[in-house]
Specification:
The chain is mainly α. It has a single domain, classed as Arc Repressor Mutant, subunit A. It has a two-stranded antiparallel sheet. A hairpin with a 2-residue loop joins strand 1 and strand 2. The longest helix has 16 residues. It is globular and about 45 Å long. The N terminus and C terminus are likely disordered.
């Protein structure tokens, strides 16, 4: 049986067996602002204005990041008066972030210096 390009794959994995949900999760965590928002929410519920002050971005940008995190099921939102309070939906996310910090500690600067995903541009590296 062959599948044409308009048919959906029967499983939620990529061709190499990587779960597509895991890819989406790590993409949602891959933005520095969303990661900062999650770290702030790890301390407790927060309003958009609290998060704006924390991450230093415009209210509309923070709201867009919150919508992404909510759509991914990582945060919840509840009204309180005229404001909305946002919170982590799953405390297990803190375990994932702690595990990531352990991996980063174990790899030293290797991840940060990665020519594909690191923060040091390849041009700077080649000049060294």
């Amino acid at each position: 049986m062959t599948m044409n390009s308009t048919e959906a794959a029967p499983t939620a994995t990529s061709s190499c067996g990587t779960p597509s949900a895991a890819v989406a999760l790590f993409r949602s965590l891959g933005d520095p602002a969303r990661l900062a928002i999650l770290r702030r929410l790890a301390e407790g519920e927060a309003r958009v204005t609290d998060l704006v002050a924390c991450v230093g971005l415009a209210q509309s940008t923070v709201s867009a990041h919150l919508a992404c995190l909510r759509d991914c099921g990582l945060i919840t939102s509840r009204p309180q008066g005229r404001a909305t309070l946002h919170a982590l939906a799953h405390p297990e996310l803190l375990d994932l972030l702690a595990a990531a910090e352990q991996v980063l500690a174990a790899t030293g600067e290797a991840v940060d210096l990665c020519p594909t995903y690191g923060t040091t541009p390849a041009a700077e590296e080649s000049a060294r």
